[in-house]
């Protein structure tokens, strides 16, 4: 195995009370892709900052290869002092780095470089920070929640980019599918200490459960051994005094180990407050439309959402997901068409604007709306501290200001408030951001088992596959289509085409840039298709089907966690072949669309 570029060993750090890190270790060699996982507040971000040299540990060894370059992606990038995104990104380059690499990354991340940092949305700021970190092609890349606020197309592009890079990558993420596709090793930070699995995240949960079961068995054995030793101490035949003192010392040591054992972290208890049952029809939309100036966001969309449906909204940032969501729930009126809401609706909403919470407000005050020490959950009066414990908050945090919470703790707080409200319609806009794996599992179970209706916006593919019964996705030019099943089902129904690959039906133009079919239409319709065009129109569907099948096979090969370990060169060739096949598929679909439009024009 190659010598490590980065090695942390015996890292200790305490911010008063229980140690945050107590002998933690982390290492990475060239090309390794490692997931750093653990509960919210376990110290993952702190350990990553120590690896980046931003925090000094109180004890332990930190080694970085002297010649190795390290780049760190924080959760909140600081762009103060930069006039444009390009200036910010290029400031991360070294003297020998290629400035064209920065341009390439900004283009693929949907940035021109001329944006002003103060005008960026959360997703745009995250994309700019990613471009800055990855542009120098450093030896070590440290990524803290890189997928937060990114849309699906960028997440999928980032997966492929990280799989191709020769840099060592250590990343923290809540996105299961992203971790499964990128990582080949896993470091679990738990109760201040780390354990390492030399397999990707796909194998982590089974391994974690085995570790915890073994730990529980060992603790049980220790307890039984203490009982036996105490029995000997009280009733055993007295032996030589020296031997008795030795066994007494061992007993004291066992007692200390038993009492000092920190059990596995508890799990949150999530139960949505039930409201009276809504009517069978929850929402009916007929040909609704919405435009902002010349931009059409929603055009001619219709749907019927009934009690018990769980509907997911997906699409690139800026596609209009939140606008469509607001129209469906009656918060925004459509420009045309009609929205009918069902009877007896009680709506509970979790939106993206988490910063809207007053940072000076305490947790208890926020949960009770300042109405004393109690709140009513599912018709039962609960003390606020007792309810906080269900979401893994400690009693002493009741008077803690919101500003002192981590991103994951704030996400749990908002969920606690939303779920305390009686509801038969849950509206969740990006609910998975900042949640740890265990809390995410509970949220999945809650959504999947909720007796009412759920509408959610998410970029988390695994979460969508596990929870929703249908997916609404954009199809270009303001058109939206509803697909049965989860995210993977939607892709299958689209012929494997990802959201960013589906072309909107272009407008008819007469300039050089107009598609061939449109130029023909602009000149006047021909009487019939040529033999070559007709043959292409007949044979293209089979070609598209064959390329789609090839893409599916290549994606299955890449999904094998042992593939990279067995043959890194073949893995890279497979990635390149997959990119080529996807480009081919896009070209074939565009050619078919042009010919089909031409055929319709002639027949019409």
Q: What can be said about the biggest beta sheet?
A: 6 strands, mixed
Shape: globular
Provide the CATH architecture of the largest domain.
3-Layer(aba) Sandwich
The largest beta-sheet arranges its strands as 5-6-7-3-8-9
- Average pLDDT level: 82
Cα-to-Cα separation, first versus last residue: 67 Å
Report the CATH superfamily of the largest domain: P-loop containing nucleotide triphosphate hydrolases
Helical/strand content category:
alpha/beta
Task: Assign a percent range to the helix content.
Answer: 40-55%
The CATH class assignment of the largest domain is Alpha Beta
Kindly state the number of beta strands: 20
Q: How many distinct helices?
A: 19
Total separate domains: 4
CATH fold naming of the largest domain: Rossmann fold
Radius of gyration: 28 Å
Strand-residue proportion:
15-25%
Main attributes?
Rossmann fold; 6-stranded mixed sheet; alpha/beta; globular; about 600 residues
Report on this structure:
With 604 residues, the chain is an alpha/beta fold. The protein folds into four domains: 6-205, Rossmann fold (3-Layer(aba) Sandwich), CATH 3.40.50.300; 206-260; 281-493, Rossmann fold (3-Layer(aba) Sandwich), CATH 3.40.50; 506-603, Valyl-tRNA synthetase, C-terminal domain (Helix Hairpins, Orthogonal Bundle), CATH 1.10.287. Helices cover 41% and strands 20% of the residues. It has helices at 44-52, 85-90, 99-108, 122-134, 152-164, 176-182, 204-235, 241-260, 321-328, 363-368, 384-390, 407-420, 437-449, 461-467, 487-493, 516-523, 531-559, 563-566, 568-603; strands at residues 6-13, 21-28, 33-37, 59-64, 70-73, 140-144, 168-172, 185-190, 193-197, 281-292, 295-306, 310-313, 336-341, 347-350, 374-377, 380-383, 425-429, 453-457, 470-476, 479-484. Strands 5-6-7-3-8-9 form a six-stranded mixed sheet, sandwiched between helices. The chain has a six-stranded mixed sheet with strand order 14-17-18-12-19-20, sandwiched between helices. A hairpin with a 2-residue loop joins strand 10 (281-292) and strand 11 (295-306). Helix 17 (531-559) runs antiparallel to helix 19 (568-603). It is globular. 34% of the residues are buried.
